[in-house]
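Archive record:
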Amino acid sequence: YDELDGFLDENNSFNFFKLFGIVLDQWVKPYLGAVKTVLSILIEQFLWCPIVFGLFEIPVSTLLNGGDLPSVRKEVDSKLGSLLISNAKIWTFANLAIYGVVPVDYRPIISNIVDLGWQSIVSSVAADCGKVDDDIC
């Protein structure tokens, strides 16, 4: 019972805050780097990428390829899902490898190599956005 005395407050009642602090200190702190990496990837995949792709990449590509303003929503609806899935397939594993394995000095170059491949996917999606006539090159 001596171990439980550390969780008791001055009224001899159980203090959950002390227990929570010990759990955080013993179980979460050693994995804080991994938790930060996973949270960063989740924020990128589910918050940042849909905003960038849905409000910039696809609409601008549609308009630059000759599409009209009403066709932007149709293009976003048809292309956003597949672009997000492709993004998750490439960048989830790349980010885990870059931030988990690659030394800090080499992260920018490895990230740029992955981004070169990713931009080829984005450019192929952008080339198909808002096509008015398929016969025109």
